[in-house]
Protein backbone atom coordinates (compact mmCIF):
# COMPACT_ATOMS: atom_id res chain seq x y z
CA UNK A 1 0.00 0.00 0.00
CA UNK A 2 1.36 3.41 -0.97
CA UNK A 3 2.13 5.60 2.02
CA UNK A 4 0.20 8.85 2.40
CA UNK A 5 1.52 12.10 3.75
CA UNK A 6 -0.16 13.70 6.76
CA UNK A 7 -2.45 15.98 4.76
CA UNK A 8 -3.58 13.11 2.54
CA UNK A 9 -4.44 11.04 5.61
CA UNK A 10 -6.39 13.93 7.18
CA UNK A 11 -8.51 14.40 4.07
CA UNK A 12 -8.84 10.67 3.30
CA UNK A 13 -10.22 9.80 6.76
CA UNK A 14 -13.88 8.82 6.76
CA UNK A 15 -16.49 7.87 9.37
CA UNK A 16 -16.98 4.33 8.08
CA UNK A 17 -20.18 2.32 8.27
CA UNK A 18 -20.99 -0.01 5.37
CA UNK A 19 -17.54 -0.66 3.91
CA UNK A 20 -16.13 -3.14 6.45
CA UNK A 21 -15.02 -6.55 5.15
CA UNK A 22 -14.95 -8.30 8.54
CA UNK A 23 -11.39 -9.52 8.02
CA UNK A 24 -9.09 -9.71 11.01
CA UNK A 25 -6.64 -6.93 11.84
CA UNK A 26 -3.11 -8.23 12.23
CA UNK A 27 -1.77 -7.89 15.78
CA UNK A 28 1.13 -5.78 14.53
CA UNK A 29 -1.13 -3.28 12.77
CA UNK A 30 -3.52 -3.06 15.73
CA UNK A 31 -0.59 -2.46 18.06
CA UNK A 32 0.71 0.36 15.86
CA UNK A 33 -2.70 2.02 15.76
CA UNK A 34 -3.18 1.78 19.53
CA UNK A 35 0.38 3.01 20.14
CA UNK A 36 -0.38 6.06 18.01
CA UNK A 37 -3.53 6.70 20.05
CA UNK A 38 -1.58 6.36 23.29
CA UNK A 39 0.99 8.88 21.99
CA UNK A 40 -1.62 11.67 21.95
CA UNK A 41 -1.01 14.82 23.99
CA UNK A 42 -2.90 15.04 27.26
CA UNK A 43 -3.48 17.70 29.88
CA UNK A 44 -0.85 17.41 32.62
CA UNK A 45 0.42 14.21 30.93
CA UNK A 46 -2.50 12.53 32.66
CA UNK A 47 -3.22 10.13 29.75
CA UNK A 48 -6.79 9.70 31.03
CA UNK A 49 -7.84 7.19 28.37
CA UNK A 50 -8.32 3.42 28.35
CA UNK A 51 -9.07 1.21 25.35
CA UNK A 52 -11.47 -1.73 25.66
CA UNK A 53 -11.14 -4.12 22.71
CA UNK A 54 -14.49 -5.82 22.08
CA UNK A 55 -14.58 -8.94 19.91
CA UNK A 56 -17.21 -10.96 21.79
CA UNK A 57 -20.16 -11.41 19.41
CA UNK A 58 -22.82 -11.44 22.10
CA UNK A 59 -21.61 -8.12 23.55
CA UNK A 60 -21.45 -6.57 20.11
CA UNK A 61 -24.94 -7.80 19.25
CA UNK A 62 -26.35 -6.40 22.48
CA UNK A 63 -24.74 -3.05 21.76
CA UNK A 64 -25.96 -3.10 18.15
CA UNK A 65 -29.51 -3.73 19.35
CA UNK A 66 -29.26 -0.79 21.76
CA UNK A 67 -27.96 1.45 18.96
CA UNK A 68 -30.87 0.47 16.73
CA UNK A 69 -33.32 1.31 19.51
CA UNK A 70 -31.72 4.73 19.92
CA UNK A 71 -31.90 5.25 16.18
CA UNK A 72 -35.67 4.77 16.42
CA UNK A 73 -35.82 7.34 19.24
CA UNK A 74 -34.01 9.88 17.05
CA UNK A 75 -36.13 9.09 13.99
CA UNK A 76 -39.30 9.83 15.96
CA UNK A 77 -38.06 13.40 16.51
CA UNK A 78 -37.71 14.14 12.78
CA UNK A 79 -40.19 15.55 10.31
CA UNK A 80 -41.16 13.33 7.39
CA UNK A 81 -38.65 14.73 4.90
CA UNK A 82 -35.75 14.56 7.34
CA UNK A 83 -36.77 11.06 8.46
CA UNK A 84 -36.75 9.89 4.84
CA UNK A 85 -33.23 11.24 4.37
CA UNK A 86 -32.09 9.67 7.64
CA UNK A 87 -33.51 6.28 6.64
CA UNK A 88 -30.79 6.04 3.96
CA UNK A 89 -27.96 6.67 6.43
CA UNK A 90 -26.27 3.79 8.23
CA UNK A 91 -25.22 4.83 11.75
CA UNK A 92 -23.10 1.83 12.81
CA UNK A 93 -21.01 -1.10 11.62
CA UNK A 94 -20.87 -2.90 14.95
CA UNK A 95 -21.28 -6.44 13.61
CA UNK A 96 -19.62 -5.86 10.23
CA UNK A 97 -16.35 -4.47 11.61
CA UNK A 98 -13.49 -6.62 12.91
CA UNK A 99 -13.75 -5.32 16.45
CA UNK A 100 -15.04 -2.50 18.62
CA UNK A 101 -12.65 -0.24 20.46
CA UNK A 102 -14.32 1.58 23.32
CA UNK A 103 -12.33 4.62 24.46
CA UNK A 104 -12.99 5.83 27.98
CA UNK A 105 -12.14 8.84 30.12
CA UNK A 106 -10.95 8.46 33.72
CA UNK A 107 -11.08 11.89 35.46
CA UNK A 108 -9.13 10.49 38.41
CA UNK A 109 -6.08 9.64 36.31
CA UNK A 110 -3.28 11.92 37.48
CA UNK A 111 -5.37 13.37 40.33
CA UNK A 112 -5.54 15.22 42.63
CA UNK A 113 -3.51 17.94 40.87
CA UNK A 114 -3.80 17.59 37.09
CA UNK A 115 -1.56 20.30 35.73
CA UNK A 116 -3.60 22.51 33.39
CA UNK A 117 -7.06 21.24 34.32
CA UNK A 118 -7.85 23.50 37.27
CA UNK A 119 -9.56 26.16 35.11
CA UNK A 120 -10.98 23.97 32.34
CA UNK A 121 -12.55 20.84 33.77
CA UNK A 122 -13.14 19.33 30.32
CA UNK A 123 -9.45 19.44 29.35
CA UNK A 124 -9.18 15.76 30.25
CA UNK A 125 -12.08 14.89 27.98
CA UNK A 126 -10.44 16.90 25.18
CA UNK A 127 -7.31 14.80 25.70
CA UNK A 128 -9.30 11.61 25.11
CA UNK A 129 -10.65 13.07 21.87
CA UNK A 130 -7.07 13.74 20.74
CA UNK A 131 -6.25 10.07 21.37
CA UNK A 132 -9.27 9.09 19.27
CA UNK A 133 -8.14 11.36 16.44
CA UNK A 134 -4.64 9.86 16.57
CA UNK A 135 -6.17 6.39 16.39
CA UNK A 136 -8.35 7.39 13.46
CA UNK A 137 -5.52 8.89 11.44
CA UNK A 138 -3.19 5.96 12.13
CA UNK A 139 -5.94 3.51 11.13
CA UNK A 140 -6.50 5.42 7.88
CA UNK A 141 -2.79 5.21 7.08
CA UNK A 142 -2.94 1.46 7.74
CA UNK A 143 -5.84 1.01 5.31
CA UNK A 144 -8.43 0.48 8.05
CA UNK A 145 -11.81 2.09 8.45
CA UNK A 146 -13.12 3.62 11.66
CA UNK A 147 -16.73 4.44 12.53
CA UNK A 148 -17.58 6.42 15.67
CA UNK A 149 -20.94 5.24 17.03
CA UNK A 150 -22.77 7.92 18.99
CA UNK A 151 -26.28 6.44 19.16
CA UNK A 152 -26.03 5.05 22.68
CA UNK A 153 -26.64 5.89 26.32
CA UNK A 154 -23.48 5.99 28.40
CA UNK A 155 -24.98 4.06 31.31
CA UNK A 156 -26.01 1.22 29.00
CA UNK A 157 -22.50 0.88 27.60
CA UNK A 158 -21.01 1.23 31.07
CA UNK A 159 -23.09 -1.72 32.32
CA UNK A 160 -22.42 -3.78 29.20
CA UNK A 161 -18.64 -3.57 29.62
CA UNK A 162 -18.44 -3.36 33.43
CA UNK A 163 -16.95 0.13 33.24
CA UNK A 164 -16.55 1.73 36.70
CA UNK A 165 -19.04 4.45 37.56
CA UNK A 166 -16.39 7.18 37.69
CA UNK A 167 -15.16 6.32 34.16
CA UNK A 168 -16.95 7.81 31.18
CA UNK A 169 -17.30 5.84 27.91
CA UNK A 170 -16.52 8.44 25.25
CA UNK A 171 -16.66 6.43 22.04
CA UNK A 172 -17.43 3.03 20.58
CA UNK A 173 -15.23 2.84 17.48
CA UNK A 174 -15.95 0.22 14.83
CA UNK A 175 -12.55 -0.70 13.37
CA UNK A 176 -11.41 -3.02 10.60
CA UNK A 177 -10.31 -3.51 7.01
CA UNK A 178 -12.59 -1.95 4.41
CA UNK A 179 -13.31 -2.54 0.75
CA UNK A 180 -12.66 1.16 0.13
CA UNK A 181 -13.19 4.55 1.72
CA UNK A 182 -15.80 6.72 -0.03
CA UNK A 183 -14.59 9.92 -1.63
CA UNK A 184 -17.48 11.85 -0.07
CA UNK A 185 -18.60 11.54 3.58
CA UNK A 186 -21.89 9.68 4.03
CA UNK A 187 -23.80 12.65 5.44
CA UNK A 188 -22.92 14.76 2.41
CA UNK A 189 -23.53 11.90 -0.01
CA UNK A 190 -27.03 11.25 1.38
CA UNK A 191 -27.97 14.92 1.59
CA UNK A 192 -28.07 15.30 5.38
CA UNK A 193 -25.63 18.21 5.58
CA UNK A 194 -22.89 19.85 3.51
CA UNK A 195 -19.43 20.77 4.69
CA UNK A 196 -18.88 24.46 5.44
CA UNK A 197 -16.13 26.32 3.56
CA UNK A 198 -13.16 27.27 5.74
CA UNK A 199 -13.80 31.00 5.25
CA UNK A 200 -17.24 30.63 6.86
CA UNK A 201 -15.63 29.75 10.20
CA UNK A 202 -12.64 32.13 10.18
CA UNK A 203 -12.59 35.16 12.49
CA UNK A 204 -9.88 37.77 12.99
CA UNK A 205 -8.98 39.21 16.41
CA UNK A 206 -12.58 39.02 17.65
CA UNK A 207 -15.51 36.71 17.05
CA UNK A 208 -17.54 37.88 14.08
CA UNK A 209 -14.78 39.96 12.52
CA UNK A 210 -14.25 38.46 9.08
CA UNK A 211 -11.29 40.49 7.82
Automatic annotation (TrEMBL):
Gene3D superfamilies: NADH Oxidase. SUPFAM superfamilies: FMN-dependent nitroreductase-like. The keyword Transmembrane does not apply. It comes from Lentzea aerocolonigenes. It comes from the Bacteria. Residues 12-176 form the Nitroreductase domain. Keywords: Flavoprotein, FMN, Oxidoreductase. GO terms for molecular function: oxidoreductase activity. PANTHER family: IODOTYROSINE DEIODINASE 1 (PTHR23026:SF90), NADPH NITROREDUCTASE (PTHR23026). Signal peptide: none annotated. This is Cob(II)yrinic acid a,c-diamide reductase.
